Amino acid sequence: MLEEVAEQTEVNRTSLSKMQNPAMRHSTTTNAIDSLCKYFGCRVDELMVYVPDEE
């Protein structure tokens, strides 16, 4: 599935893998987020959630 998303959105497959894992603390671009929202037909708040650091 990641391969298809990467191909359709032009977001690197490695970046997509890192985005799936909050522990990776991956930084991405607004262009990638925009492309993913368009692909999935969703809003940003449906695509990602804020996960606060444990103190």
From TrEMBL:
Organism domain of life: Bacteria
Residue ranges of every copy of the HTH cro/C1-type domain listed in the record: 3-53
Region ranges (Disordered): 1-25
Polar residues: compositionally biased ranges: 9-25
Protein name as it appears in the record: HTH cro/C1-type domain-containing protein
